[in-house]
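Build the 3D complex.
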Amino acid sequence: MKDYIVKDLMVPISEYATVPEEATLYETVMALEKAQETFQQNRYSHRAVLILDKNDRVIGKLSQMDFLRALEPRDANLDQIRKFKRFGFTRKAVALQQEEYLKNSPPILDVYSKAAKLKVTDFMQRPTEGEYVDENTSLDMALHQVTAGSNLSLLVTRGADIIGVLRLADVFAAVFHSMKESESHLSDGAT
Amino acid sequence: MRELEKLFDRIIQRVNINLRELAFDVNPLVRQLIPTGQMTKFYAFYGITPHHPLNLVFKHSNLSGSYFLGRCRVTNSLLYKSDIRGDELKKSGDLFQYQEFNVPVDQDEEIRIDDCYLIKTLVHNFSHDPETLERFFIRDTVSTHYANIHGSPADGCYLGPFATVDLTTMRDCVIGAYAYVQAGEISHLKIEPGTVWVRNPDDFNFMYRYPLNQLNNYIYFTAGSQPQGIFMDFVEDRKEAFQRVFKVVNIETPVTVPANASLDRFAVIKPKTRIGDNVLVAQRAFLQNSTLGKGANAQENCYIINSKLAGNNVTAHGAKIIDADMGTHVFVGFNSFLRGRPDARLTIGKESIVMPHTIIDIRKPLTVKPGSLVWGMVGNAEELEANSMALKDFAKIHSRISRGHMLFEGSGTNFVNAFQERIHHILEANGAFYNGNLNRGHAQKNQNISFNTIQPYPKGDKEGMYPTIIIQP
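Done.
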């Protein structure tokens, strides 16, 4: 497992789905769809889109979850309902109250149509310090970083530049592969 | 008056330090609420009875217009027209039951108030926290008009006007106006105005949230002004009647009071009021043209006007009942506001439970069926349908239900049972079941009560501060 380093496993930024910062939500998911189609021809499955500023520097990331959240209606009451978990209610109860509250809200197609025109920068997640990892970091170190932050991906750096994305799926595959090798080695030794 | 002002600053700073995580500043909310001149005007008073321990200690505090009963210690605090009622505190030798524990109480429980600013607040009941059985503490806390701190130790908290915290230990919390919390233990929470939250962890969880645009008509509080709205107008309109009972030394009882009932001399009783057997009327209650049947009660800051209570009714602290007919065993929770009209009476059927902080304000006659549970905002029959349920149906809930602004999760049976057991306990404690020999409660114990007054320094740097006073048998 220690033989792998991050740059062996990352998706290079050139092959990742990206959009400029002025993109709308719709343009962003279209970019994701295009990246998914490209996936048919290569090994990468894309689940997020990176948002680039005018200098092509990564300023944020829109995950599938961020996209779905963007479609959720927003008002002060709903924000309060979403905080009900802190009052000891289960997720099911929160969803039930949300459903009750939205009974008389506009049809879902109107909601989608409005959301499509919104700016992606309003919904993207800006990367925090713990979401960057150097390209030469060992896999076990990267694994610790992923689990400690419950991150679905990390941004891979070379100096001040972001050169790729290390995804949970890639870390999982590498770790699993190592485990398999190790088990098979032990089993060979035993015979 | 310098000392008073320094004390105010000290308290505000301490509360704000506790609430820094919630980024909540109490200073702009309360600095102008009570002019310091007002805090030097009123005497404080305390009750002496043969039935309650007497141990009062006041140090470096202002107690303007406040009332004390039982075992209380107040230090570095400002108490303005507040009631500190220690007639339900635990006694040495009691056993406190908590989950599977039976914890012995080593010494008489004491209400301990340190570094607090309480405005027109009621403190009552006893600490329900098994970690602090002998000390019902309230420290570094600010509470505003008509808040209730009921069996709820508090540390570093703010309570908005008409807020109630009931049987809940709270640390570093903000409780918004007209919010009601009964949740066992809470910390670092900001409860929005008009939230009614009753939770027994792993058992049931009830929450109702008032639509703010409607609640604001009843109570609205923002920095730089006094609390406003129908609730405040309602009590302000009746303020003069209380001024009279506090000014006159020997006040005549204006109605016939049965030998087994208790009418506090600091309650206001207007004409055509009838008081039945085993009735308890606490100080600062207001009765007018009303009948209280056997075993009914009216707690502090209750107003019962043009109404009939059939008997064994609990009208909890701060509840208001106007132009209404209540069947037997109807429970009206804290700070509820039930207002019929002379030509549109409100009828509540027997054995119904009106949840704490419920507003029923009608312009057409309305009847709540017997055995109902009612909550939230009700202005007409349609809203009653949305915000009520038969208790027997509520008891059938065993997962979750959402109705309008109400969400419930857990065991409906346990929720209903918990309420019914508590109502029975309240009636018992109030002496509703007294039979001339057994089941003596507050209605019988509070009859023979004497009141003494204490006063602050009249002038100078210490103007408004009370000297250190120790009152013991």
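The longest helix of chain B spans residues 412-430.
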